[in-house]
Amino acid sequence: MSVRSAVVALVVATVAAFSVSSSAAADAGHAAAQDAMDDEVQRSQVPGVLGQAQDGGGVWHGSSGVADSRTGRPPMPHDTFRIGSLTKPFIATVLLQLEAEGTVDLDAPVEHWLPGTLRGGGEHGRSVTVRQLLGHTSGLYDFTADPRVRRETFGPRFAAHRYDSHRAASLVRTAMAHPRAFAPGTGWGYSNTNYVLAGMVIAKATGHSYAHEVERRVIRPLRLRHTSLPGTSPRLPVPHGRAYSRLSASGPGAGAGNGARAQDVTTLDPSLAGASGEMVSSTGDLVRFMRALLRGNVLPARQLAQMKTTVPAEGGERYGLGLTEYRLSCGTTVWGHEGTIQGSRSVAVTTADGSHTAAFNINADWSEGTSGLIEAEYCG
Predict the structure, then answer these.
(1) 135 to each of 87, 199, 232, 283, 319, how far by Cα in Å?
(2) How many angstroms separate the CA atoms of 88 and 329, rounded?
(3) Are 177 and 121 in contact (CB under 8 A)?
(4) What's the chain's average pLDDT?
(5) Structure pTM?
(6) What percent of the chain has pLDDT over 70?
């Protein structure tokens, strides 16, 4: 048997085993989630979807479509992928741990840690607090909304800039060139600039990079073996599928159904996202993290309560400190976060007691979102 034939045989055998596992679990209560993944592939025409859930019935693995459009390989349970803004709960966790240790006062102005950083654009560091960064109540402009950034990172100039490296201070300066959306503390507006600044605060407060602190405080203690912060490295850890985008200057989520050709965007320099969205993980690691977080195994009770103190956000949701409160149609409330970056859209949520946790990844960025997957898993 040739090497290629052996590989094909192994993939077929693995797919068969995976399919049996998923089917058995679906019979135990996850059939609606599997149907929702199948529907996402068919309706939004995304290449593939990967899911995992853990509840009283055990661990369920599900998948639909393909992880690689060239080879037809299906999504697999240990595949790694870029998690985008799902990085934010990790960053918020570190800052809340630092608060518990007495190192950081969340109500201190950003100016205390980063003097002069927020000058310009009508901003001043003394009027924005660390807590407002974590809760998206600072009013700071989102640097990813800058027209040049959108053209070069999400639009037709992506190919020429996909390996550009970015420094956090430069991303903040881009944001500071724009006026704020509202006075700090008077509204809510999602801004990746907030978490780039949060990463800078961690570095100043600890003397180490935010990546070092996330690894030391969260990744290693929870044994998240498939989770990493790649920095400027453009490659994903193996195993992984491919990531696809239709590259619209309007940003991720645009272009669904417009007939644009999907392009492979698997390799890119994630420093554009930095502390707001650079991380890589797997569905299993995300389930483990969210369960541990909401069960109080990562933060003291006081800090977890702060994380879950929410304000009204977009789409009827509520947002705390790096944590979103989703109130589902069936009356169930789950906590977690969604994350989108070029070619990847993910979500991880859990019930308040951590008894039912789920994570999903779509290897494309033009779907309408992950709310249907969550609804199916918890309300289907």
Answers:
(1) 14, 14, 27, 25, 7
(2) 25
(3) yes
(4) 91
(5) 0.92
(6) 89
Question: Which pLDDT score is estimated for 125?
Answer: 75
Token pair belonging to 339: 């994350």
Q: Which of 236, 269, 243 is nearest to 50 (CA)?
A: 243
| Whole-number pLDDT of residue 14 | 42
The predicted pLDDT at position 22 comes to 43
- The answer to whether 324 and 335 have CB atoms below 8 angstroms apart is yes
With cut-offs at 50, 70 and 90, classify the pLDDT of residue 260.
confident
Nearest Cα residue to 352 out of 328, 380, 373, 372: 328
Q: How many residues does the chain have?
A: 380
Rounded-to-integer distance, Cα 322 and Cα 210, Å: 15
Q: Amino acid letter at 255? A: G
What tens digit of pLDDT does each residue of 309-333 get? 999 999 889 999 999 999 999 999 9
User: If we measure between CA atoms, which residue out of 62, 41, 84, 76 comes closest to residue 345?
Assistant: 84
Residues known to be catalytic: 85
| The CA-based dihedral angle spanning residues 276, 277, 278, 283, taken in that order and rounded to the nearest 10 degrees | 140
Burial of 250 (0-12, 13-18, 19+ CB in 10 A): exposed
DSSP symbol at 26:
I
* Separation in Å, CA 72 to CA 2, 68, 78, 193, 211: 19, 5, 17, 38, 34
State the DSSP string of 80-135: BEE-GGGHHHHHHHHHHHHHHTTS--TTSBHHHHSTTTT-BTTB-GGG-BHHHHHH
* Average pLDDT estimate for 235-240: 97
- Per-residue pLDDT, averaged over 134-146, amounts to 97
